[in-house]
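Predict the structure of Small ribosomal subunit biogenesis GTPase RsgA.
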Amino acid sequence: MVARYGSEVDLLDDWQRIHRARLRRRTDDVVCGDLVFLEPTQAAVTRRAKRHNQLSRRDGTHRLRTIAANIDRVWIVIAPQPEVPRFLVDRFLTGIVNLPARPALLVNKWDCIDPQRPSTFDALLENYRCLDLELLHVSAHTGYGLDRLRTAARGSSNILVGQSGVGKSSLIQSLLPREELRIGELGHSGEGRHTTTTARWYESEGGAWIDSPGVRDFTPEIGSATELARGFSDLAAHAGQCRFRDCTHQAEPGCAVRAAVANGELPARRLEAWHELLQEIVAGARVRPGDRGTR
Ligand SMILES: Nc1nc2c(ncn2[C@@H]2O[C@H](COP(=O)(O)OP(=O)(O)OP(=O)(O)O)[C@@H](O)[C@H]2O)c(=O)[nH]1
Ligand SMILES: [Zn+2]
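Done. Here is the predicted structure for Small ribosomal subunit biogenesis GTPase RsgA.
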């Protein structure tokens, strides 16, 4: 399934042709990336195949919305403008590793970055240096890094996620010049305009690309500190040495995670992000007793 427009969908067949079809009530939960069965005479979707994963987010009214399904790789797109919201990358990473899918960081608008001048943007990237995370610098405008991106993405289904205005649609447009995507201008203060309103699947010889609507925030669908720890392998690497097995790395004595922050082995921002997400899990009363630790 390529894209959804209310109760109608665009489907891609094995010959790369697009068909418009209707959803029946039983198939109302179909999203971009789903494999579906079609009743051709009525152009109706009768059933969808089982998914291997799905990426969901809470909307403004806290309802869970599934953005896309059957994703191998999630590229978190960031750019010097618009400014990256605090902990957005940490939030995405935690959600992605729990899908599970492979996360990667894609820094777009490389043409706007002066490598000679250290910036707050470099400081942000420093926070993720301890993670075994693929990081690519690209420019949709100049084409810089796009060959490396194509190679890294080959043979898999790839979704671009991130704020509005970071250039997700522009990147797919540059990767697939024959497609026609809508690109939005940035507002006066550098904010995006939410030009993409529904996820869309673009098939190419080298793999598939999914463009997704820009988000302001992202709340990962996690219910335990064990799942949280999956998104914080850098922090979890130290947690084994904490004195208490269920250490939450706040005020406990003998906390190896805080010690790692103090001696510069772990960025303080990562521990702050951990605390914010742990707080949200606790507030949602979704942590089982004895499941607060990182191990
Ligand atoms: N300088 C520069 N600008 C870029 C680059 N890529 C995208 N832009 C600009 O950034 C703005 C937003 O681009 P879009 O591709 O619409 O961003 P998006 O992330 O798809 O936004 P939404 O669809 O709203 O989520 C446009 O003005 C683009 O021209 C780049 O590599 N360099
Ligand atoms: Zn600790």
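The chain has eight helices and 13 strands.
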